[in-house]
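Entry 14. Ran structure prediction on the chain below.
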Amino acid sequence: MDNTADQSLLSLFKEIRTLIDKYLKTKLNLGNFTMPQTMIMYYLGQSGKMKISELSEKMGLTNSTVSGIVDRLEDQGVVSRTRSTSDRRVVYVELNPEYAKKLQDIHDNLDKYFEEILAALPPEQVTSIYQTLAALRNTILDHLNYSSQD
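Output, structure tokens:
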């Protein structure tokens, strides 16, 4: 693929991500929460207390970016930070209990909304999209495995 096609593909991925974020924000009634804030809430709801580095890895963002998002959630009273008793350098983040209900509503509806999106496409197109994305994922995994052997 040439550089122009690569750039077009990257632009399309970014545009689709933005559109999905916008769609889900509207459908899930996220209020003042951004999609990254919602994802942090989701991961904390699923896993419980986590380190910033663990959240960063799950989200594919830098520690400083996730820390900034957590700062804003902490300011809103959504999450709390606590230091490890065994290693004061380690800071954990956890979801405050009053946000568990909202998080459960988001979780319950997430699959439903993706099904709505995909239902608007012919089944053969959904199959094609799945196959293409699976091939891309496998290629990325192959590259990750190859580079980790170096």
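Residues 123-148 form the longest helix (26 residues). Will compare against last week's run tomorrow.
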